[in-house]
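ingest -> validate -> predict -> emit
validate: passed (alphabet ok, no gaps, 342 aa)
predict: started
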Amino acid sequence: MTALRKYARLETTGLWRPVPDAQRREVVVSFGDASLVLSDGRTQMPLSHWSLPAVQRRNPGEMPAIYAPASDAQAETIEIDDTGMIEAIETVRGALARRRPRRGRGRLLAMGLTAAAILALAVFWLPGAVVGHTTRIVPFVKREQIGHDLLLSMARYTGAPCADPQGLAALGRLSARLFGRDGAQVVVLREGLAPGGTAHVPGRILMVDRRLVEQFDGPEVLAGHLIAEKLRTEQSDPLAEVLHAAGLRATFTLLATGTLPAGALEGQAQERLQTPPAEVPGDLLLRRFASVGLPAQPYALSLDPQGTATRALIEGDQLAPGTARQLMPDADWLALQSVCTR
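emit:
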């Protein structure tokens, strides 16, 4: 080491006390290999070796300088009044200390990395894991309750859902035709959704705007939008969507008590009404349309009357014009178109 080599030939005398109550003795003080060597002045025989990094100064700022090989009060000491030697000892000790591994710093670094990893898990992994576990164990009846609670919150913006009995009966038969018995509950909203819009909430509840019922000659457009919305619920769990929006605390509460805390759904109603429906892959739509005997063209043209943006759906339609089975009797369709009269 440069500093040690610089002072390798430096010597001075000092008063050495081997134990606290012993008589002081004059010795020669010199540098060894990272150590301070105390030798007999007459015989040159080494009397003691002190590790320089461990050497402690007992009286900083005072003269003569008193050093000890450790902080122990029972340790031997050496008194030195040679300012050159004192400066050399301090310089070499400082250089040696900088070369030693910083255990505290390494420990702090390791603790910091561990804390960062835990924080990353808490931020990025834990919410998804808790939500995923919760959605797997929450029973359907609780999902349905949460969905109806959201519908009640939405009523401030949409008004009460359309409720003509004959229209609802016809709507139930259409839903069974498309999704099977209890496959979905369809709710027609008076306003609040974008024109031609759809949305969903937990509990297999699909919502449609009344204009999808009232402004078309047949049920094919409405059926196409219902199928698209049902596919969205299969691509993203509606309850998981609600819990992600409600937050981790609300999710833990539902997991622990079976009930969402008050206010957990606050703000979600309007946001869900205003959020544009997610895009559904065309191949999924075409397969589902074909499975229920529904032509794709009416749905595609309701999205884009020119058919430019939905050309793939129109060209991929697996049902030739005029070959599709009737979705519902004309009397049912007329009743359904009057569902919002009450």
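Confidence is low (pLDDT under 50) at residues 117-125.
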